[in-house]
Design brief:
Shape: rod-shaped
Number of helices: 8
Helix content: 55-70%
Number of strands: 6
Largest sheet: 4 strands, mixed
Mean pLDDT: 81
Radius of gyration: 36 Å
């Protein structure tokens, strides 16, 4: 399922921003781009993502921005003392050399140090920003999921309606098939024992009977409604149900004895394929 979310937390001297882009994927695939200072908690970050999502390709970008523009400068006293000693030695060796001013001393590498944020605080801020980002993403995906569920229910209801029509037509279709068999046998102009002939016709009609397939189709449609109504992730279950629906629709088509039944089987498969494409996006 697609989506974009951003979470940001400011603590002390830095702001941690987490951005997440989500696209469709059959399984959970999580990729991180983040500073090296956060690599040691990558496992916790992945666990946080895995606790909320089970499907989708998630690209997460984590940035750390300094917020210490007005903070006092931090001077490395030991570095400055070492620089002072070195300047004294240079002055003794080269008395004619110009003495550096204070700004030059401050710009010397190592004299001014960055104010480092406590690692535990940084990690806590990152996890908090990630939690905010994932919550926004989950809300977006839930809204998208509701729309997809509505579409799937519409296709499921369409299959159910056609299944109901087929049930009503089934006795007529079976009788028409029986009459067609009798006409073909009569056209052969063969002597046959009536009882034996009737047994063979019943056997052929049983082989063409599709009531079991129709019952299973109805059961699978009920299972789809149950899965969509639940709170647990149902994407993989719906994947399986689509396979079962398609299998029953194929069997229905292979047993068809009338053009109307063949057309119904084809329409079933069209609707099933429409559902299957969207179910790839459902967690």
């Amino acid at each position: 399922m697609t989506g974009f979310a951003r979470g940001s937390v400011t603590t002390g001297a830095v702001t941690v921003t987490v951005e997440c882009r989500s696209v469709n994927n059959r399984y959970l695939d999580v990729q991180f781009r983040m500073p090296d200072a956060l690599r040691e908690i990558e496992g916790k970050l992945r666990d946080a993502v895995g606790s909320r999502f089970s499907r989708g390709k998630l690209d997460l970008s984590i940035r750390i921005a300094d917020q210490v523009v007005d903070a006092p400068l931090a001077i490395d006293e030991a570095r400055l003392a070492a620089l002072k000693t070195a300047l004294s030695d240079i002055s003794a060796a080269f008395p004619e050399a110009a003495v550096p001013d204070q700004l030059t001393l401050l710009l010397t590498p190592g004299v001014i140090t960055d104010q480092t944020l406590d690692t535990a605080t940084l990690h806590s801020a990152t996890l908090s920003a990630l939690d905010d980002c994932l919550q926004q993403l989950k809300e977006q995906r839930c809204l998208e999921g509701e729309k997809l569920a509505t579409m799937i229910r519409q296709r499921s209801d369409a299959i159910r309606e056609q299944l109901s029509v087929l049930r009503e037509q089934l006795p007529q279709l079976q009788e028409a098939h029986r009459q067609k068999l009798l006409l073909r046998l009569n056209a052969l102009d063969l002597e046959a024992e009536p009882t034996r002939l009737e047994e063979e016709i019943v056997y052929i009609l049983q082989r063409a009977d599709v009531e079991e397939e129709m019952d299973r189709l109805g059961a699978h449609l009920d299972a789809i409604d149950t899965a969509l109504a639940g709170k647990a992730p149902c994407g993989r279950r719906l994947d399986f149900l689509m396979q079962e629906l398609n299998r029953e629709a194929n069997t229905l088509g292979s047993k068809s004895t009338a053009l109307s039944t063949t057309n119904t089987s084809v329409e079933f498969k069209v609707l099933i394929e429409q559902m299957r494409e969207q179910i790839q996006n459902i967690e």
